Amino acid sequence: MATDINEIDFAEKENRLWSLTKQFGSWCRKRTIGAVGLFMVLVVLAAAILNPVIKRYDPNETNVPDRLQGPNAQHFFGTDDFGRDLWARIIGGAVISAQVGFISVAIGSVIGLIFGVISGFFGGGIDNLIQRITEIMLSIPGILLALALMATDVGSGGIDTVVMALSIIFIPRTVRVMRGSVLSCKENVYIDAARAIGCKPSRIMWRHITPNVMAPYLVLASSLLGTAILTEASLSFLGLGVPPPHPSWGRLLSGSVMLYAISAPWMVIVPGVAITWLVLGFNVFGDALRDTFDPKLRGR
């Protein structure tokens, strides 16, 4: 009897997995551009995960005799002015970008989700206080706020500082979107029913409202990932982002644009294409998620 139950459970899991696979295949066919964006993101994530295997050289190892070599069989993307392998540095930069992007978005969007739900649910003085603080933060351009935070040298002055700065600029954006979603959601009949049977406000917020605003939250988080990558690259380009010797994509551009744009164009093209590839992938995938979750756009 136990064997029969185990076989039934395995068959149910297999059927469920097959159903999810078919749904994903159907989504890819309907949202071809979004599937391409997801593929672009997965390529970079795979490179970051397989970094120890595929990097071939130490990204910080200098080799003066091999400096400024163009792309060849030994150095797929060529070398920089210190003879460092650009393939290894691009792969190392993928690790930095993925780490900074995902951690900063996770921290900033979760904090923004919490305050957005509280603001939209309670309203009144709590809502006014949270929204006034949010408006003050939104009145400052994100890149300027990040530059100010980096210039004050908060945190340890390394990757943690960049993550902290990006997380702070993502909080007000998430608060504003989540508040609007909660205001719409809490007017539904099932929320009135939950109040009628005596559910506590905390239970209504986190068990009935929050799960129903996760769709716009996921769309927002996916779009913020592209913003995080681009902002980190901009900070590193200006010399205030990820510090050396970490091979940040923005830092790869900072010293090569002015000096080697003509004599060694691969030093500019390769990191520029890498940044464009990942940001475009996140943006296209985020647009596809928005079209999937938004009932007004689902039929288009």
Structure description:
With 300 residues, the protein is mainly alpha-helical. The chain has 2 domains: 1-30; 32-293, Orthogonal Bundle (MetI-like fold). 73% of the residues lie in helices and 0% in strands. The protein is built from 13 helices and no strands. The protein has helices at 2-30, 32-49, 51-54, 86-122, 124-138, 142-151, 159-185, 189-196, 201-209, 214-237, 249-254, 257-260, 266-293. The model has no long low-confidence stretch (mean pLDDT 82).
Tally of contiguous helical segments? 13
Outline the low-pLDDT stretches: none
Largest sheet: none
Helix fraction bin: over 70%
Number of strands: 0
Rounded mean pLDDT score: 82
The CATH superfamily of the largest domain is MetI-like
Features:
mainly alpha; MetI-like fold; 2 domains; 13 helices; 73% helix
Architecture blueprint of SSEs:
Layout: H1 2-30, H2 32-49, H3 51-54, H4 86-122, H5 124-138, H6 142-151, H7 159-185, H8 189-196, H9 201-209, H10 214-237, H11 249-254, H12 257-260, H13 266-293
Helix pairs in contact: 1-2, 2-4, 2-13, 4-5, 4-7, 4-10, 5-7, 6-7, 7-10, 8-9, 10-13
Quick synopsis:
The chain is mostly helical and 300 residues long. It has helices at 2-30, 32-49, 51-54, 86-122, 124-138, 142-151, 159-185, 189-196, 201-209, 214-237, 249-254, 257-260, 266-293.
